Amino acid sequence: MARPLFLLALLATALAATSTLGRRGGLLGGWSPVPDVNDAHVQELGGWAVAQHASLANDGLLFRRVTRGEQQVVSGMNYRLLVVAADGSGKSVIYLAQIYEHWSGTRKLTSFKPAAGG
Length: 118
Hints:
The chain is of the alpha+beta class. It is built from 2 helices and 5 strands, in the order αβαββββ. A hairpin with a 4-residue loop joins β4 (92-102) and β5 (107-114).
């Protein structure tokens, strides 16, 4: 009888531990630095965010690069990215873009604003 209870307790512990981990690692709900902002996916997300904003605001912003970011595991991934974009005159401006990306690949631009002090 002790062996089945031990196995049940072991299974419950394993399930509890894995339920707090996201698909790409990290604790659910916690923000952590993007490991490599030069990663093609991260840069593509930054470009996508600028394009989404530009299509809504009609302000002609052009993506240059992502310089820093954080990610948060949820039922997908939230990203907070510092994005450099060129305004209509070609001047570089830094923005803070927040993007939600579901595991299915769907995305939503949840916030896009000039970075404080940027």
